[in-house]
UniProtKB/TrEMBL annotation:
Residues 2-67 form the HMA domain. One of its GO terms (biological process) is copper ion transport. InterPro entries: Cu-bd, HMA_dom, HMA_dom_sf. This is Heavy metal transporter. It comes from the Bacteria.
Length: 70
């Protein structure tokens, strides 16, 4: 099982977090999604067949792209 944390600047409220949770939960392999609108972060726990690429791709598709590290 893998746990990743992402910074998502487009998160503005609990509704945003719920949208992300609902969408990511439909990806096969995603076990748990938690989010915090105040810190604009989410935590995703997943196994294969889910991957960081598939998670990031879906987040971008639903207009919650992951903040790129510099």
């Amino acid at each position: 099982m893998t746990t990743v944390n992402y910074s998502i600047p487009n998160i503005n409220c609990k509704h945003c977090v719920m949208t992300i949770k609902n969408e990511l939960s439909e990806l096969p392999g995603v076990q748990k999604v938690e989010g915090d609108p105040e810190t604009k972060t989410i935590e995703v726990v997943f196994d294969a067949p889910a991957s960081e690429d598939s998670i990031k791709s879906l987040l971008k598709e639903i207009n919650y792209p992951v903040k790129q590290e510099k």
